[in-house]
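Example 433, ligand pyridoxal-5'-phosphate.
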Amino acid sequence: DHDLRTADPEVYGIIGKEKERQYKSLELIASENFTSRAVMEAVGSCLTNKYSEGLPGKRYYGGNEHIDELETLCQQRALEAFHLDKEKWGVNVQPLSGSPANFAVYTAILKPHDRIMGLDLPHGGHLSHGFMTAKRRVSGTSIYFESMPYRLDESTGIVDYDMLEKTAILFRPKLIIAGASAYPRDFDYPRMRKIADAVGAFLMMDMAHISGLVAASVVADPFKYCDIVTTTTHKSLRGPRGGMIFFKKEQVLGVDLETSINNAVFPGLQGGPHNHTIGGLAVCLRHAQSPEFKTYQNKVVANCRALAKQLMDLGYSLVSGGSDNHLVLVDLRPLGLDGARVEKILDMASITLNKNSVPGDKSALVPGGIRIGSPAMTTRGFTEKEFKAIADFIHEGVQITLDAKRQAPGTKLQDFFKFIASPDFPLTDRVLD
Ligand code: PLP
């Protein structure tokens, strides 16, 4: 029984290279973070060896006394971290990740082909909220359910709640989904609750991106208005990769959410829970209740504001004109540039962010913006001063891209600019997380 280095030098070597990349680059992908050593230790533990289908105290396998203790502790901490009354709210900590958590909710409360409304992916929503294009039902969510996305008001970059209301009245969805992957503002939960009530729909919030901010109460609290709240655990919450589903412990629209959601996760969609992840998640949820965590989340928001301000001072146009949370969306189209080329140029300088659609984009293949997030570098100790410097670095990258674009045809730089937009260079729209 050898350690990794001896047992598999190849994988050991790849991990070493990835560690170095993470260490040396400016990590600005809004959905990523650096989890703690303690979380990593739990995730890399013997918990991975155990099968425990079922819930604490009701397992299909023996030998689960410690796993029961762990999962119960994780559930308790999850409710505490989000300031929830355990008489009124329950949680399932077994979803393997964010997309499976969302799909579990849909299968729990909907019948195949029931109608759903989530924010359109090109306007910041997530694939698993019902994404489809004119040609193709892309996400399983849009294959098995009938999806009518709502969108932003393109003139303000804010969710068009009036249009959502009008459409909901005609479409009569059974479920309305709040939450996004690339939306720099808070959702108007009271308004969405009203719309859901008017049409007899469930209201769910997918707080994947902002769950750390919600736990620290630095953004609005979705639990006050929603029936169900889902999340990933590895973004601003800074835990291991995983998912959670919170549900009201009551009948909503005739559905017992607790029973139907628990059954949808297992045996509906999953088998054995990933106990090593649940271990890491329990550790993360203990961190999430500390004063340091609150300070961290306040810094995430302050750093993002500093970044937004410097970008605007440099003349950039931000979708919605700023940010309330951990990310900004820069619209590069006024410069005659797209996000794909800028992402590539910045990547060469070890500045890691992603190209992203912005409202009004004509082509999903060459999106007009970039998404920049503050959680990861805030974990690395960056302050507002460094985030201002990040804006300057990004500006330099944009200038270099513009420079390349302006070169005379036939020059090396102009060839390079063409290459990074050619079919040889994969320009896929990856607004997926
Ligand atoms: N929901 C939102 C809002 C997301 O941004 C993501 C991101 O990736 C997911 C769900 C899906 O999570 P996962 O990638 O863990 O399936």
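Summary: Residues 31, 97-99, 126, 128, 179-181, 206, 208-209, 232, 433 surround pyridoxal-5'-phosphate (CB under 6 Å).
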